[in-house]
Amino acid sequence: MKSADNQRDPETFAIIGAAMEVHRELGHGFLEAVYQESVAIEMTARRIPFQREGPLPVVYKGEKLACSYRADFVCYEEVLVELKAINQLTGADEAQVINEMKATGKQRALLFNFGAPSLEYKRRVLNLRESAQSADEIENINLTRS
User: Fold this and answer.
1) Domain map (residue ranges) of the chain
2) Is the pLDDT of residue 6 over 90?
3) Closest CA to 105 of 78, 72, 144
4) First and final C-alpha spacing in the chain
5) What mean pLDDT comes out for the span 124-133?
6) How much is the pLDDT for 41?
7) Among 20, 43, 83, 92, which residue is least crowded by beta carbons within 10 Å?
8) How far apart are CA 22 and CA 36, in angstroms?
Protein backbone atom coordinates (compact mmCIF):
# COMPACT_ATOMS: atom_id res chain seq x y z
CA MET A 1 0.00 0.00 0.00
CA LYS A 2 1.05 3.50 -0.62
CA SER A 3 2.07 5.66 2.31
CA ALA A 4 -0.70 8.10 1.30
CA ASP A 5 -3.25 5.43 2.34
CA ASN A 6 -1.63 5.28 5.77
CA GLN A 7 -1.73 9.06 6.13
CA ARG A 8 -5.30 9.37 4.86
CA ASP A 9 -6.75 6.78 7.25
CA PRO A 10 -4.15 5.24 9.56
CA GLU A 11 -6.77 3.29 11.52
CA THR A 12 -8.16 1.29 8.60
CA PHE A 13 -4.62 0.93 7.23
CA ALA A 14 -3.58 -0.72 10.53
CA ILE A 15 -6.59 -3.07 10.51
CA ILE A 16 -5.93 -4.10 6.91
CA GLY A 17 -2.29 -4.81 7.83
CA ALA A 18 -3.39 -7.08 10.67
CA ALA A 19 -5.77 -8.99 8.37
CA MET A 20 -3.05 -9.36 5.73
CA GLU A 21 -0.70 -10.83 8.32
CA VAL A 22 -3.34 -13.38 9.38
CA HIS A 23 -3.95 -14.38 5.76
CA ARG A 24 -0.20 -14.65 5.14
CA GLU A 25 0.15 -16.98 8.13
CA LEU A 26 -2.96 -19.13 7.67
CA GLY A 27 -3.80 -18.88 4.00
CA HIS A 28 -7.35 -19.74 2.97
CA GLY A 29 -9.55 -22.71 3.80
CA PHE A 30 -10.26 -22.35 7.52
CA LEU A 31 -13.64 -21.60 9.07
CA GLU A 32 -14.53 -17.98 9.80
CA ALA A 33 -14.15 -18.60 13.56
CA VAL A 34 -10.45 -19.42 13.09
CA TYR A 35 -9.87 -16.12 11.32
CA GLN A 36 -11.83 -14.21 13.99
CA GLU A 37 -9.63 -15.63 16.74
CA SER A 38 -6.47 -14.99 14.75
CA VAL A 39 -7.43 -11.42 13.84
CA ALA A 40 -8.15 -10.70 17.52
CA ILE A 41 -4.68 -11.98 18.45
CA GLU A 42 -3.03 -9.94 15.69
CA MET A 43 -4.91 -6.74 16.55
CA THR A 44 -3.99 -7.16 20.22
CA ALA A 45 -0.33 -7.59 19.24
CA ARG A 46 -0.54 -4.42 17.13
CA ARG A 47 -2.33 -2.50 19.89
CA ILE A 48 -5.41 -1.91 17.75
CA PRO A 49 -8.29 -1.26 20.17
CA PHE A 50 -11.32 -3.40 19.42
CA GLN A 51 -14.53 -4.84 20.78
CA ARG A 52 -15.47 -8.27 19.51
CA GLU A 53 -19.04 -9.16 18.59
CA GLY A 54 -20.47 -6.45 20.79
CA PRO A 55 -24.04 -5.33 20.19
CA LEU A 56 -24.45 -2.33 17.90
CA PRO A 57 -27.62 -0.43 18.73
CA VAL A 58 -29.95 0.46 15.88
CA VAL A 59 -31.77 3.78 16.01
CA TYR A 60 -34.98 4.51 14.14
CA LYS A 61 -36.20 8.13 14.09
CA GLY A 62 -34.20 8.90 17.19
CA GLU A 63 -35.44 5.87 19.12
CA LYS A 64 -33.16 2.96 20.04
CA LEU A 65 -34.62 -0.35 18.92
CA ALA A 66 -34.63 -3.48 21.09
CA CYS A 67 -32.89 -5.45 18.31
CA SER A 68 -29.28 -4.80 17.38
CA TYR A 69 -26.54 -5.82 14.97
CA ARG A 70 -23.35 -7.64 15.93
CA ALA A 71 -20.28 -6.83 13.88
CA ASP A 72 -17.33 -9.21 14.11
CA PHE A 73 -15.24 -6.31 15.42
CA VAL A 74 -15.60 -2.61 16.13
CA CYS A 75 -12.12 -1.07 16.10
CA TYR A 76 -11.19 2.34 17.47
CA GLU A 77 -14.84 2.58 18.62
CA GLU A 78 -15.86 3.64 15.10
CA VAL A 79 -14.69 1.21 12.39
CA LEU A 80 -16.96 -1.78 11.71
CA VAL A 81 -15.07 -4.91 10.64
CA GLU A 82 -16.81 -7.92 9.11
CA LEU A 83 -14.99 -11.16 8.31
CA LYS A 84 -16.05 -13.82 5.84
CA ALA A 85 -14.47 -17.13 4.81
CA ILE A 86 -16.24 -17.83 1.52
CA ASN A 87 -15.22 -18.37 -2.10
CA GLN A 88 -16.03 -14.80 -3.14
CA LEU A 89 -17.71 -11.75 -1.62
CA THR A 90 -21.23 -11.09 -2.86
CA GLY A 91 -23.51 -8.11 -3.06
CA ALA A 92 -25.35 -9.48 -0.01
CA ASP A 93 -22.13 -9.32 2.03
CA GLU A 94 -21.57 -5.72 1.02
CA ALA A 95 -25.22 -4.87 1.69
CA GLN A 96 -24.88 -6.30 5.21
CA VAL A 97 -21.99 -3.95 5.95
CA ILE A 98 -23.71 -0.93 4.41
CA ASN A 99 -26.90 -1.60 6.38
CA GLU A 100 -24.91 -1.93 9.61
CA MET A 101 -23.26 1.42 8.88
CA LYS A 102 -26.56 3.16 8.17
CA ALA A 103 -28.32 1.64 11.17
CA THR A 104 -25.53 2.39 13.65
CA GLY A 105 -24.25 5.69 12.25
CA LYS A 106 -20.69 4.34 11.95
CA GLN A 107 -18.88 6.12 9.12
CA ARG A 108 -16.27 3.51 8.13
CA ALA A 109 -16.28 -0.24 7.61
CA LEU A 110 -13.97 -2.94 6.34
CA LEU A 111 -15.17 -6.21 4.81
CA PHE A 112 -12.62 -9.03 4.60
CA ASN A 113 -12.84 -12.40 2.86
CA PHE A 114 -10.27 -14.93 4.02
CA GLY A 115 -11.76 -17.74 1.90
CA ALA A 116 -10.03 -16.76 -1.34
CA PRO A 117 -6.39 -17.58 -2.21
CA SER A 118 -5.60 -13.84 -1.89
CA LEU A 119 -7.16 -11.79 0.89
CA GLU A 120 -10.16 -9.88 -0.45
CA TYR A 121 -11.06 -6.65 1.28
CA LYS A 122 -13.32 -3.70 0.70
CA ARG A 123 -13.33 -0.39 2.51
CA ARG A 124 -16.63 1.45 2.79
CA VAL A 125 -17.17 5.05 3.85
CA LEU A 126 -20.64 6.38 4.58
CA ASN A 127 -20.87 10.05 3.69
CA LEU A 128 -23.68 11.83 5.48
CA ARG A 129 -23.95 15.30 4.02
CA GLU A 130 -26.33 17.79 5.56
CA SER A 131 -27.35 19.04 2.15
CA ALA A 132 -28.02 15.57 0.73
CA GLN A 133 -31.64 14.45 0.53
CA SER A 134 -30.61 10.86 1.23
CA ALA A 135 -28.25 9.77 3.96
CA ASP A 136 -27.15 6.62 2.17
CA GLU A 137 -24.58 7.94 -0.28
CA ILE A 138 -21.79 5.38 -0.30
CA GLU A 139 -18.28 6.09 -1.53
CA ASN A 140 -16.27 3.05 -2.50
CA ILE A 141 -12.55 3.41 -2.12
CA ASN A 142 -10.53 0.68 -3.75
CA LEU A 143 -7.28 0.07 -1.97
CA THR A 144 -4.46 -1.50 -3.89
CA ARG A 145 -2.33 -4.20 -2.38
CA SER A 146 1.41 -4.22 -2.68
Assistant:
1) 3-141
2) no
3) 78
4) 5
5) 59
6) 98
7) 92
8) 10
